């Protein structure tokens, strides 16, 4: 009886202890005024995102991805029925700027049916500049830049093995090419301002180290990152406590020492020297070389287009341009940068695309779109505006288990996706999740082919800006070309490119696409529903 009385009194003693601490501390006035009870407020704040996600918000309210959007990705990744019944639950009466796809009544089916819903790029990457290793990407849906360090090793392995199954490509991110990226998936190697993996002892760019990295893995192209949507114009700091032996070896830095990524490149300083840098890398590696950037002021893009179209001196140019939306993405950043620095994707992309179209360069550059475009509707709008391929990042994270708890920057991701905590990362099984990654890519390509078929074209890149309207509730709609100031012909492929990709799609001629991405991959197995 004595011990039972002591046990029964423990909660009261603990509560009294918390109350005494609250009343005497001076950091939190709420707790000083409302001891014990005040902790409930902090508890609710801590789990607020989860409460809004599953209890408070409607199917279309939650951001960055609504419940409906996440559900489509989850179900597609699991290989189960991703259809919806009983009509749309979107508030069509009041939605502003909602894209509507305009089908054609007598459209004819054109694209050949394939098991993996293959959609090759309408352009040969590096073909316009005759790069030695130019190729036509097999998939218009690929995975965007996310570094090992930002994501766990298990997450990187699942993504890379998944894109291998789906015949897609995987961008390494600026953190360097790790062992986790070597699961068979073809790679786009990203070079950031820190030159991780291709830097000398002083942190400067080292071309020979880059060549060694390229030759050690299936690297298909190189992307020079000028900025990203989450934090354009902002550098980064990796604290020394996070620079483990493994990360130090991958990035070419000193273990335990804080690493600073500057906000600007040191290997070049303007558009002219950047093109020299591009040509130097392309000549030495033979690979297509492009740039990635969010869009701010337009002087840079006008100058770049002028230099690329110039007939004075040797012809120089980037092979592809990845435009990232200023809405932010996987990278952690100050809120003002995610919310307010750089243009939203559609505005930024349209301005850059028009600049290169007017310079006569739109058919010579592969335009890659990045920024919450990994859903059938948003991807369709990107293609209609002139994109040739799309990169997915957060959608890929969702496909392998992310719950949108928005804890990426705290190293506490509960599903082991965006963390370096070994226990949390252990919960993510790459062998299972690789199939979910592949299933998601296949599902997105399948829906893009269905949409193309409804419009009456064989390939998403043949969709034009007049095929979509942005709605003002149910009162009126305005075609994309009018909204973004596209004159006739803008957003469209040149006649030769259009004819060639239509032939490839109609004949199903996916074997001779160029490069090394022929059909020697295992099949992307469809999973049974799991929770």
TrEMBL record:
Q: What is the lineage of its organism?
A: Bacteria, Bacillati, Actinomycetota, Actinomycetes, Micrococcales
**What Pfam families does the entry give?**
Glu_synthase
InterPro entries from the UniProt entry: Aldolase_TIM, GltB, Glu_synthdom
Per the UniProt record, the source organism is Dermacoccus barathri
The Glutamate synthase domain extends over 138-457
Top-level lineage group: Bacteria
Q: What name appears for this protein in its UniProt entry?
A: FMN-binding glutamate synthase family protein
Family to which this protein belongs: Belongs to the glutamate synthase family.
Q: Which PANTHER family match?
A: ARCHAEAL-TYPE GLUTAMATE SYNTHASE [NADPH] (PTHR43819)
């Amino acid at each position: 009886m004595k011990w039972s009385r002591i046990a029964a009194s423990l909660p009261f003693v603990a509560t009294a202890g918390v109350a005494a601490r609250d009343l005497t501390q001076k950091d939190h006035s709420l707790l000083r005024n409302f001891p014990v009870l005040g902790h409930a407020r902090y508890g609710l704040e801590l789990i607020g995102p989860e409460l809004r996600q599953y209890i408070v918000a409607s199917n279309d309210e939650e951001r960055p991805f609504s419940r409906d959007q996440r559900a489509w990705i989850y179900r597609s990744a699991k290989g189960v029925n991703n259809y919806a019944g009983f009509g749309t639950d979107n508030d069509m009466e009041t939605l502003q700027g909602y894209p509507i796809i305009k089908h054609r009544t007598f459209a004819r089916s054109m694209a050949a049916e394939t098991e993996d819903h293959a959609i090759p790029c309408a352009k040969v990457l590096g073909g316009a500049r005759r790069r030695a290793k130019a190729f036509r990407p097999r998939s218009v849906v690929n995975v965007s830049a996310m570094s090992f360090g930002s994501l766990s090793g298990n997450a990187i392995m699942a993504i890379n093995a998944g894109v291998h199954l789906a015949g897609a490509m995987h961008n390494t991110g600026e953190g360097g090419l790790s062992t986790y990226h070597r699961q068979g998936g073809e790679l786009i190697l990203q070079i950031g301002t820190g030159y991780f993996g291709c830097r000398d002892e002083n942190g400067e760019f080292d071309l020979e180290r880059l060549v060694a990295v390229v030759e050690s893995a299936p690297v298909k192209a190189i992307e020079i990152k000028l900025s990203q949507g989450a934090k354009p114009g902002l550098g980064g700091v990796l604290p020394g406590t996070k620079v483990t032996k493994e990360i130090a070896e991958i990035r070419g830095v000193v273990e335990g020492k804080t690493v600073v990524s500057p906000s600007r490149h040191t290997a070049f300083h303007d558009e002219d020297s950047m093109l020299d840098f591009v040509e130097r890398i392309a000549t030495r590696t033979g690979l297509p070389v492009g740039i990635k950037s969010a869009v701010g002021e337009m002087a840079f893009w006008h100058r770049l287009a002028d230099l690329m179209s110039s007939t004075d001196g040797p012809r120089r140019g980037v092979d592809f341009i990845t435009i990232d939306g200023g809405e932010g993405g996987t990278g952690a950043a100050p809120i003002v940068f995610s919310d307010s620095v750089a243009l939203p994707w559609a505005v930024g992309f349209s301005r850059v695309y028009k600049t290169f179209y007017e310079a006569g360069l739109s058919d010579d550059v592969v335009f890659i779109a990045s920024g919450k475009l990994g859903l059938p509707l948003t991807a369709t709008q990107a293609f209609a505006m002139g994109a040739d391929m799309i990169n997915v990042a957060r959608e890929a994270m969702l496909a392998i288990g992310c719950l949108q708890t928005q804890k990426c920057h705290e190293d506490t991701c509960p599903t082991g996706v965006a963390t370096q905590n070994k226990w949390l990362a252990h919960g993510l099984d790459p062998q299972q999740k690789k199939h979910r990654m592949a299933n998601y890519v296949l599902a997105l390509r399948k829906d893009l082919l269905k949409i193309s078929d409804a419009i009456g074209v064989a390939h998403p890149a043949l969709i034009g800006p007049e095929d979509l309207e942005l709605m003002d509730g149910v009162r009126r709609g305005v075609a994309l070309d009018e909204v973004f100031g596209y004159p006739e012909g803008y957003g469209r492929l040149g006649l030769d490119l259009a004819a060639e990709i239509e032939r490839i799609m109609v004949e199903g001629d996916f074997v001779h696409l160029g490069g090394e991405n022929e059909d020697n991959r295992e099949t992307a197995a469809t999973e049974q529903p799991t929770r």
